[in-house]
Amino acid sequence: MRDLEAIERAVQERFPDVASDIARGELTLFAAPEQVVDLLRFCRDDAALACDYLADLGGVHWPAGEHVLERQPSTTGWPEYRVSRERGVVEINYILRSTSRNHWFRVSVATDDEDARLPSVTSLWATADFLEREAYDFFGVRFEGHPNLLRILMPDDWVGHPHRKDYPLGGVDVTYHNEKFIPPPDERDLRREVADR
Question: Contact, 172 vs 181, CB < 8 A?
Answer without folding.
Answer: no
